[in-house]
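Hi R.,

Here's the chain you asked about this morning:
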Amino acid sequence: MTEYVDEVWLLRLAERIDGDPQVNDLGPLFATVARHRARAMERDVYGSDWLKAAALLHTLARLDSLEHSNGQFAWLTTVGFLAVNGYHLEYPPKSAAALVMNTGAGLIGVQQIAVQLRQWVAS
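And the predicted structure, written out as tokens:
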């Protein structure tokens, strides 16, 4: 059973980021929570934890909610979501940074993100 993040979880995570960035826009946080939980025709829109994690990263990287450190916030949310669901990633930091930057720039989508995240699962 998937453990989902909620707005409180996101706000608490944001508080732990260096410099404690203020929330400039709550909308993306609510959108993030709704998106990774989305259901249509009695099925999850994102049918695996990898796709749910990718939807989290995609939403937070594309829609800034904090005054700074939005990419870091997106990444920490994604890694945290996967960790609470039993997945631990091993990844080259530069590759993870590139994934976040390319996502934020709109160069890659949810499917590609999910594939990359799954490749980084610790064995």
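The helical segments are 7-15, 27-37, 49-62, 70-84, 93-104, 110-119.

Let me know if you need anything else.
M.
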